[in-house]
Design brief:
The structure holds two protein chains of two kinds. By secondary structure, chain A is mainly alpha-helical. Chain A is built from eleven helices and eight strands. Chain B starts with a strand and ends with a strand. The chains are: A mainly alpha, B alpha+beta.
Chain lengths: ~325, ~140
Protein backbone atom coordinates (compact mmCIF):
# COMPACT_ATOMS: atom_id res chain seq x y z
CA UNK A 1 0.00 0.00 0.00
CA UNK A 2 1.39 3.40 -0.96
CA UNK A 3 2.44 5.60 1.88
CA UNK A 4 0.30 8.65 2.54
CA UNK A 5 1.78 12.10 2.33
CA UNK A 6 1.57 12.33 6.07
CA UNK A 7 3.40 9.07 6.57
CA UNK A 8 6.12 10.19 4.18
CA UNK A 9 6.48 13.43 6.03
CA UNK A 10 6.70 11.60 9.34
CA UNK A 11 9.45 9.34 7.99
CA UNK A 12 11.27 12.36 6.60
CA UNK A 13 11.22 14.08 9.99
CA UNK A 14 12.25 10.91 11.75
CA UNK A 15 15.28 10.67 9.47
CA UNK A 16 16.12 14.32 10.10
CA UNK A 17 15.86 13.80 13.87
CA UNK A 18 18.14 10.81 13.64
CA UNK A 19 20.57 12.82 11.53
CA UNK A 20 20.48 15.70 13.98
CA UNK A 21 20.92 13.33 16.88
CA UNK A 22 23.91 11.65 15.29
CA UNK A 23 25.36 15.04 14.36
CA UNK A 24 24.98 16.29 17.93
CA UNK A 25 26.61 13.17 19.32
CA UNK A 26 29.56 13.57 16.95
CA UNK A 27 30.04 17.18 18.01
CA UNK A 28 29.91 16.20 21.67
CA UNK A 29 32.44 13.43 21.13
CA UNK A 30 34.83 15.79 19.37
CA UNK A 31 34.44 18.32 22.18
CA UNK A 32 35.09 15.65 24.79
CA UNK A 33 38.18 14.46 22.92
CA UNK A 34 39.57 18.00 22.67
CA UNK A 35 38.95 18.59 26.38
CA UNK A 36 40.62 15.35 27.44
CA UNK A 37 43.57 15.88 25.09
CA UNK A 38 44.12 19.42 26.35
CA UNK A 39 43.84 18.43 29.99
CA UNK A 40 46.26 15.53 29.75
CA UNK A 41 48.82 17.38 27.64
CA UNK A 42 48.83 20.61 29.64
CA UNK A 43 52.31 21.64 30.72
CA UNK A 44 52.39 20.29 34.30
CA UNK A 45 54.92 22.92 35.38
CA UNK A 46 53.04 25.98 34.34
CA UNK A 47 51.17 27.40 37.24
CA UNK A 48 49.65 30.79 37.59
CA UNK A 49 51.79 33.49 39.16
CA UNK A 50 48.69 35.50 39.97
CA UNK A 51 49.12 37.93 42.83
CA UNK A 52 46.80 39.65 45.26
CA UNK A 53 46.43 43.20 43.93
CA UNK A 54 46.85 44.81 47.36
CA UNK A 55 49.50 42.75 49.09
CA UNK A 56 51.42 41.36 46.12
CA UNK A 57 51.27 37.90 47.70
CA UNK A 58 51.16 35.10 45.17
CA UNK A 59 48.15 32.81 45.41
CA UNK A 60 48.65 29.20 46.39
CA UNK A 61 48.25 26.44 43.82
CA UNK A 62 48.11 22.76 44.64
CA UNK A 63 50.18 20.51 42.43
CA UNK A 64 48.23 17.76 40.68
CA UNK A 65 48.70 14.17 41.71
CA UNK A 66 51.86 12.70 40.19
CA UNK A 67 53.34 16.00 39.01
CA UNK A 68 56.76 17.41 39.87
CA UNK A 69 55.75 19.34 43.02
CA UNK A 70 53.05 17.02 44.30
CA UNK A 71 55.02 16.03 47.40
CA UNK A 72 55.26 19.70 48.39
CA UNK A 73 51.51 20.12 48.76
CA UNK A 74 50.31 21.37 52.16
CA UNK A 75 53.86 21.90 53.49
CA UNK A 76 55.15 25.18 54.93
CA UNK A 77 58.34 26.56 56.50
CA UNK A 78 61.38 24.35 56.89
CA UNK A 79 59.41 21.25 55.93
CA UNK A 80 58.55 22.79 52.58
CA UNK A 81 62.14 23.92 52.01
CA UNK A 82 63.45 20.46 52.86
CA UNK A 83 60.95 18.74 50.59
CA UNK A 84 61.79 21.09 47.73
CA UNK A 85 65.46 20.30 48.31
CA UNK A 86 64.60 16.62 47.82
CA UNK A 87 62.49 17.29 44.74
CA UNK A 88 65.01 19.46 42.89
CA UNK A 89 67.96 17.24 43.78
CA UNK A 90 66.17 14.08 42.70
CA UNK A 91 67.51 13.14 39.27
CA UNK A 92 69.57 16.31 39.02
CA UNK A 93 72.20 15.90 36.29
CA UNK A 94 74.73 18.71 36.76
CA UNK A 95 76.58 20.11 33.79
CA UNK A 96 80.23 21.17 33.86
CA UNK A 97 81.09 24.85 33.92
CA UNK A 98 82.38 24.78 30.36
CA UNK A 99 79.24 23.22 28.87
CA UNK A 100 76.96 25.61 30.73
CA UNK A 101 78.00 28.28 28.23
CA UNK A 102 76.10 26.41 25.53
CA UNK A 103 73.03 26.00 27.73
CA UNK A 104 72.99 29.75 28.33
CA UNK A 105 73.04 30.31 24.56
CA UNK A 106 69.45 29.01 24.63
CA UNK A 107 68.35 29.68 28.18
CA UNK A 108 69.05 33.41 28.14
CA UNK A 109 67.48 34.19 24.78
CA UNK A 110 65.26 37.24 24.90
CA UNK A 111 61.56 36.43 24.57
CA UNK A 112 61.04 39.76 22.81
CA UNK A 113 63.98 40.15 20.45
CA UNK A 114 64.48 37.02 18.42
CA UNK A 115 67.89 35.31 18.50
CA UNK A 116 69.46 37.70 21.00
CA UNK A 117 70.65 37.02 24.52
CA UNK A 118 69.24 39.30 27.17
CA UNK A 119 72.18 40.12 29.44
CA UNK A 120 71.51 40.48 33.12
CA UNK A 121 71.55 43.87 34.87
CA UNK A 122 72.08 46.13 31.84
CA UNK A 123 69.64 44.31 29.53
CA UNK A 124 72.14 44.44 26.66
CA UNK A 125 71.07 42.33 23.69
CA UNK A 126 73.93 40.34 22.17
CA UNK A 127 74.49 37.52 19.72
CA UNK A 128 74.16 34.26 21.62
CA UNK A 129 77.05 32.29 20.16
CA UNK A 130 79.89 32.01 22.68
CA UNK A 131 82.81 34.19 21.52
CA UNK A 132 85.31 33.70 24.36
CA UNK A 133 83.84 36.33 26.61
CA UNK A 134 83.85 39.25 24.18
CA UNK A 135 80.07 39.81 23.90
CA UNK A 136 79.06 38.03 27.07
CA UNK A 137 80.54 36.20 30.01
CA UNK A 138 79.12 33.91 32.70
CA UNK A 139 77.76 35.67 35.76
CA UNK A 140 77.25 33.89 39.06
CA UNK A 141 74.17 35.56 40.49
CA UNK A 142 75.15 34.02 43.86
CA UNK A 143 78.85 34.95 43.47
CA UNK A 144 81.30 32.12 43.10
CA UNK A 145 83.44 33.47 45.95
CA UNK A 146 80.41 33.12 48.25
CA UNK A 147 79.58 29.52 47.29
CA UNK A 148 82.09 27.80 49.57
CA UNK A 149 83.58 26.05 46.56
CA UNK A 150 87.15 24.96 45.98
CA UNK A 151 87.34 24.85 42.20
CA UNK A 152 85.42 26.44 39.35
CA UNK A 153 87.05 25.55 36.05
CA UNK A 154 85.52 24.49 32.76
CA UNK A 155 85.70 20.79 33.65
CA UNK A 156 84.17 21.16 37.11
CA UNK A 157 80.62 20.22 38.06
CA UNK A 158 79.49 21.59 41.42
CA UNK A 159 77.32 24.33 42.91
CA UNK A 160 79.25 26.86 40.82
CA UNK A 161 78.23 25.22 37.56
CA UNK A 162 74.50 25.11 38.36
CA UNK A 163 72.84 26.67 35.31
CA UNK A 164 70.01 28.20 37.34
CA UNK A 165 72.59 30.44 39.03
CA UNK A 166 74.39 31.47 35.86
CA UNK A 167 73.36 34.29 33.54
CA UNK A 168 74.86 35.86 30.46
CA UNK A 169 76.40 39.22 31.36
CA UNK A 170 78.17 42.08 29.62
CA UNK A 171 81.86 41.70 30.65
CA UNK A 172 82.26 45.27 31.93
CA UNK A 173 79.15 44.87 34.05
CA UNK A 174 80.50 41.56 35.37
CA UNK A 175 83.58 43.37 36.57
CA UNK A 176 81.57 46.21 38.05
CA UNK A 177 79.26 43.96 40.08
CA UNK A 178 82.04 41.46 41.02
CA UNK A 179 80.82 39.63 44.17
CA UNK A 180 78.72 42.37 45.73
CA UNK A 181 75.60 41.38 47.65
CA UNK A 182 72.33 42.90 46.47
CA UNK A 183 71.31 46.20 47.98
CA UNK A 184 68.63 48.82 47.65
CA UNK A 185 68.17 51.17 44.72
CA UNK A 186 65.93 52.07 41.83
CA UNK A 187 66.16 52.46 38.07
CA UNK A 188 69.23 51.10 36.33
CA UNK A 189 71.72 48.67 37.82
CA UNK A 190 74.51 50.25 39.86
CA UNK A 191 76.94 49.74 42.72
CA UNK A 192 75.72 51.03 46.07
CA UNK A 193 77.61 52.90 48.78
CA UNK A 194 77.23 50.11 51.34
CA UNK A 195 79.35 47.75 49.21
CA UNK A 196 76.33 46.25 47.50
CA UNK A 197 74.81 46.20 44.04
CA UNK A 198 71.35 47.12 42.79
CA UNK A 199 70.47 44.76 39.94
CA UNK A 200 68.05 47.08 38.13
CA UNK A 201 64.26 47.32 38.17
CA UNK A 202 63.80 44.70 35.46
CA UNK A 203 66.08 42.14 37.02
CA UNK A 204 65.48 42.39 40.75
CA UNK A 205 62.75 39.77 40.90
CA UNK A 206 64.80 37.43 38.71
CA UNK A 207 67.84 37.59 40.99
CA UNK A 208 65.66 37.11 44.06
CA UNK A 209 64.18 33.89 42.70
CA UNK A 210 67.60 32.62 41.66
CA UNK A 211 68.96 33.18 45.16
CA UNK A 212 65.92 31.48 46.72
CA UNK A 213 66.62 28.52 44.44
CA UNK A 214 70.28 28.35 45.46
CA UNK A 215 69.49 28.52 49.18
CA UNK A 216 67.04 25.64 48.69
CA UNK A 217 69.12 23.47 46.36
CA UNK A 218 72.27 23.79 48.50
CA UNK A 219 71.25 23.90 52.13
CA UNK A 220 74.68 25.14 53.29
CA UNK A 221 74.04 28.48 51.54
CA UNK A 222 72.44 31.17 53.73
CA UNK A 223 70.40 34.24 52.93
CA UNK A 224 70.80 37.04 55.46
CA UNK A 225 70.19 40.71 56.22
CA UNK A 226 73.28 40.98 58.43
CA UNK A 227 75.38 43.68 56.79
CA UNK A 228 78.46 42.72 58.86
CA UNK A 229 78.31 39.22 57.45
CA UNK A 230 77.67 40.40 53.90
CA UNK A 231 80.58 42.86 53.87
CA UNK A 232 83.09 40.47 55.45
CA UNK A 233 85.25 39.03 52.66
CA UNK A 234 87.70 37.23 54.93
CA UNK A 235 85.92 33.96 54.27
CA UNK A 236 85.64 34.12 50.49
CA UNK A 237 85.66 30.64 48.93
CA UNK A 238 85.09 29.07 52.35
CA UNK A 239 81.85 27.63 53.73
CA UNK A 240 81.82 30.25 56.44
CA UNK A 241 81.48 32.87 53.72
CA UNK A 242 78.67 31.07 51.88
CA UNK A 243 76.01 33.72 52.33
CA UNK A 244 74.16 36.33 50.29
CA UNK A 245 71.52 38.98 50.74
CA UNK A 246 69.90 41.16 51.53
CA UNK A 247 67.02 38.82 52.33
CA UNK A 248 64.40 41.46 53.15
CA UNK A 249 65.03 43.19 49.84
CA UNK A 250 64.87 39.95 47.91
CA UNK A 251 61.47 39.22 49.45
CA UNK A 252 60.19 42.64 48.42
CA UNK A 253 61.63 42.38 44.91
CA UNK A 254 60.02 38.97 44.44
CA UNK A 255 56.62 40.66 44.73
CA UNK A 256 57.48 43.90 42.94
CA UNK A 257 59.02 42.28 39.85
CA UNK A 258 56.81 39.25 39.10
CA UNK A 259 57.68 36.01 37.31
CA UNK A 260 58.16 36.73 33.60
CA UNK A 261 57.95 34.82 30.33
CA UNK A 262 61.74 35.02 30.13
CA UNK A 263 62.09 33.21 33.45
CA UNK A 264 59.50 30.58 32.57
CA UNK A 265 61.24 29.85 29.28
CA UNK A 266 64.66 29.78 30.95
CA UNK A 267 63.39 27.38 33.60
CA UNK A 268 62.19 24.99 30.91
CA UNK A 269 65.46 25.14 28.94
CA UNK A 270 67.53 24.46 32.05
CA UNK A 271 65.19 21.65 33.08
CA UNK A 272 65.90 19.97 29.75
CA UNK A 273 69.63 20.45 30.30
CA UNK A 274 70.17 19.48 33.94
CA UNK A 275 66.86 17.81 34.88
CA UNK A 276 65.75 20.10 37.67
CA UNK A 277 63.65 23.24 38.05
CA UNK A 278 63.54 26.49 39.98
CA UNK A 279 60.44 26.01 42.17
CA UNK A 280 60.08 29.73 42.83
CA UNK A 281 59.34 30.40 39.18
CA UNK A 282 56.78 27.59 39.00
CA UNK A 283 55.34 28.29 42.46
CA UNK A 284 56.30 31.82 43.55
CA UNK A 285 53.94 31.43 46.52
CA UNK A 286 56.44 29.02 48.11
CA UNK A 287 58.66 32.00 48.97
CA UNK A 288 56.02 33.38 51.36
CA UNK A 289 55.60 29.99 53.02
CA UNK A 290 59.31 29.43 53.57
CA UNK A 291 60.73 32.86 54.37
CA UNK A 292 57.75 34.96 55.48
CA UNK A 293 55.92 32.65 57.92
CA UNK A 294 52.78 32.85 55.84
CA UNK A 295 50.08 30.19 56.05
CA UNK A 296 48.55 28.44 53.05
CA UNK A 297 45.13 29.69 54.11
CA UNK A 298 46.34 33.27 53.71
CA UNK A 299 47.35 32.54 50.14
CA UNK A 300 44.14 30.90 48.94
CA UNK A 301 42.56 33.07 46.29
CA UNK A 302 39.18 34.40 47.49
CA UNK A 303 36.21 33.08 45.52
CA UNK A 304 34.53 35.62 43.30
CA UNK A 305 30.81 36.14 43.80
CA UNK A 306 28.79 33.79 41.56
CA UNK A 307 26.33 35.61 39.36
CA UNK A 308 23.78 33.13 38.26
CA UNK A 309 21.60 33.43 35.20
CA UNK A 310 18.64 33.57 37.57
CA UNK A 311 20.01 36.57 39.46
CA UNK A 312 20.73 38.32 36.16
CA UNK A 313 17.22 37.67 34.99
CA UNK A 314 15.86 38.84 38.35
CA UNK A 315 17.86 42.06 38.09
CA UNK A 316 16.73 42.71 34.53
CA UNK A 317 13.11 41.97 35.39
CA UNK A 318 13.23 44.24 38.42
CA UNK A 319 14.66 47.10 36.36
CA UNK A 320 12.00 46.56 33.69
CA UNK A 321 9.21 46.43 36.27
CA UNK A 322 10.40 49.60 37.92
CA UNK A 323 10.63 51.44 34.61
CA UNK A 324 7.12 50.27 33.59
CA UNK A 325 5.76 51.33 36.99
CA UNK B 1 91.17 59.99 38.64
CA UNK B 2 93.31 59.36 35.59
CA UNK B 3 95.67 56.53 34.73
CA UNK B 4 98.29 55.42 32.23
CA UNK B 5 97.90 52.37 30.04
CA UNK B 6 100.60 50.33 28.36
CA UNK B 7 100.14 47.35 26.08
CA UNK B 8 102.66 44.58 25.70
CA UNK B 9 102.55 40.79 25.50
CA UNK B 10 105.01 40.51 28.37
CA UNK B 11 106.38 42.54 31.22
CA UNK B 12 109.46 42.29 33.38
CA UNK B 13 108.65 42.11 37.07
CA UNK B 14 111.49 43.50 39.16
CA UNK B 15 112.61 41.75 42.37
CA UNK B 16 109.86 42.09 44.98
CA UNK B 17 106.90 40.23 46.41
CA UNK B 18 103.78 40.13 44.23
CA UNK B 19 100.17 39.05 44.53
CA UNK B 20 98.06 37.64 41.67
CA UNK B 21 94.34 38.01 42.34
CA UNK B 22 90.98 39.43 41.39
CA UNK B 23 91.28 43.25 41.59
CA UNK B 24 87.76 43.32 43.08
CA UNK B 25 89.12 41.30 45.97
CA UNK B 26 92.35 43.19 46.65
CA UNK B 27 90.66 46.60 46.49
CA UNK B 28 88.29 47.18 49.39
CA UNK B 29 84.70 48.10 48.65
CA UNK B 30 85.00 51.39 50.44
CA UNK B 31 84.41 54.68 48.66
CA UNK B 32 88.15 55.20 48.23
CA UNK B 33 88.94 51.63 47.22
CA UNK B 34 86.03 51.50 44.82
CA UNK B 35 87.16 54.72 43.14
CA UNK B 36 90.41 53.04 42.09
CA UNK B 37 88.63 49.83 41.14
CA UNK B 38 86.06 51.49 38.90
CA UNK B 39 88.81 53.55 37.20
CA UNK B 40 90.83 50.39 36.70
CA UNK B 41 88.05 48.54 34.90
CA UNK B 42 87.09 51.63 32.93
CA UNK B 43 90.62 51.82 31.52
CA UNK B 44 91.05 48.07 31.10
CA UNK B 45 87.91 47.54 29.07
CA UNK B 46 89.07 49.88 26.35
CA UNK B 47 91.13 46.91 25.14
CA UNK B 48 89.97 43.88 27.16
CA UNK B 49 91.69 41.21 25.09
CA UNK B 50 95.18 42.48 25.85
CA UNK B 51 97.61 42.24 28.73
CA UNK B 52 97.84 45.75 30.11
CA UNK B 53 100.10 47.68 32.45
CA UNK B 54 97.87 50.26 34.13
CA UNK B 55 99.24 52.89 36.47
CA UNK B 56 96.81 54.65 38.79
CA UNK B 57 98.12 56.98 41.49
CA UNK B 58 101.62 55.54 40.94
CA UNK B 59 100.43 51.97 41.61
CA UNK B 60 101.14 49.47 38.83
CA UNK B 61 98.55 46.89 37.89
CA UNK B 62 99.37 44.21 35.31
CA UNK B 63 95.91 43.21 34.24
CA UNK B 64 94.28 40.64 31.97
CA UNK B 65 90.94 38.94 31.68
CA UNK B 66 90.05 35.27 31.58
CA UNK B 67 88.21 33.54 28.80
CA UNK B 68 84.76 33.25 30.28
CA UNK B 69 83.97 35.31 33.35
CA UNK B 70 83.80 34.21 37.00
CA UNK B 71 85.70 31.18 38.17
CA UNK B 72 88.63 29.70 40.04
CA UNK B 73 91.55 28.90 37.80
CA UNK B 74 94.72 27.18 39.01
CA UNK B 75 93.90 28.22 42.54
CA UNK B 76 93.13 31.86 41.80
CA UNK B 77 89.53 33.03 41.98
CA UNK B 78 87.74 35.87 40.28
CA UNK B 79 84.24 37.31 40.44
CA UNK B 80 85.11 40.09 38.00
CA UNK B 81 86.47 37.98 35.17
CA UNK B 82 89.84 39.73 35.50
CA UNK B 83 93.16 39.26 37.28
CA UNK B 84 95.91 41.64 38.32
CA UNK B 85 99.53 41.25 39.36
CA UNK B 86 100.45 43.86 41.95
CA UNK B 87 103.67 44.59 43.83
CA UNK B 88 102.76 44.20 47.50
CA UNK B 89 105.25 46.88 48.51
CA UNK B 90 103.18 49.42 46.56
CA UNK B 91 99.96 48.66 48.43
CA UNK B 92 101.23 47.74 51.88
CA UNK B 93 99.61 49.89 54.57
CA UNK B 94 97.39 51.51 51.94
CA UNK B 95 93.91 51.54 53.52
CA UNK B 96 92.26 51.18 50.13
CA UNK B 97 93.71 47.68 49.75
CA UNK B 98 93.23 44.42 51.61
CA UNK B 99 96.29 43.78 53.78
CA UNK B 100 95.83 40.10 54.53
CA UNK B 101 97.49 38.18 51.69
CA UNK B 102 96.98 34.76 53.25
CA UNK B 103 93.25 34.33 52.72
CA UNK B 104 91.09 33.87 49.65
CA UNK B 105 91.91 32.38 46.29
CA UNK B 106 95.03 34.46 45.60
CA UNK B 107 98.64 33.61 44.92
CA UNK B 108 101.73 35.41 46.15
CA UNK B 109 105.29 34.97 44.97
CA UNK B 110 108.64 36.49 45.76
CA UNK B 111 111.42 36.89 43.24
CA UNK B 112 114.97 37.93 43.93
CA UNK B 113 115.69 38.42 40.23
CA UNK B 114 113.76 39.83 37.29
CA UNK B 115 111.02 37.50 36.06
CA UNK B 116 108.99 37.71 32.87
CA UNK B 117 105.19 37.70 32.92
CA UNK B 118 103.70 36.86 29.56
CA UNK B 119 100.15 36.48 28.33
CA UNK B 120 98.67 34.43 25.56
CA UNK B 121 94.89 34.70 25.50
CA UNK B 122 93.79 33.73 28.02
CA UNK B 123 96.66 32.23 29.94
CA UNK B 124 99.32 33.81 32.12
CA UNK B 125 102.85 32.45 32.30
CA UNK B 126 105.54 33.70 34.64
CA UNK B 127 109.12 32.60 34.10
CA UNK B 128 109.37 31.42 37.73
CA UNK B 129 107.00 28.57 36.85
CA UNK B 130 103.62 30.05 37.73
CA UNK B 131 101.04 29.22 35.10
CA UNK B 132 97.35 30.20 35.07
CA UNK B 133 95.19 28.60 32.46
CA UNK B 134 91.73 30.15 32.26
CA UNK B 135 90.15 28.69 29.16
Amino acid sequence: MAKSKVQKKIEKYQKMSKTKLIGTLVVLLIAAFVYIYTATNEDPFTYSSEQDAETGLYYYHYADNGTYYYQANDLVGEQLKSQLNVIINNGFAGIDYGDVRYVLEDADLSTIYAAKLWNIYDGELVDPIWDSGVSWAREHVWPNSRLGVERVGNTDTNQASDAHNLRAITPTVNSSRSNRFYSDGSGAATTTDDGGYYPGDEHKGDVARILFYMATMYDFLTLTDDINVLTNENFNYELEGANMGRLSLLLAWHREDPVSEFEINRNNVIFNAQANRNPFIDHPEYVHLIWEDTSIETLIKPEEPIETAFSDIWKETSILWISIS
Amino acid sequence: MEGDVYFMDQYILKPSEYVICDPAFILLKTKEGDAIYQQLIKLFYKAPNSFQHLVIEDISFYMFRNEGGDGIFDGIGTDSGTFVIVDIAQIKSDSRFRQDFTRGKIKTFKNNDDVMASFEPFDLNISNGIHIHTE
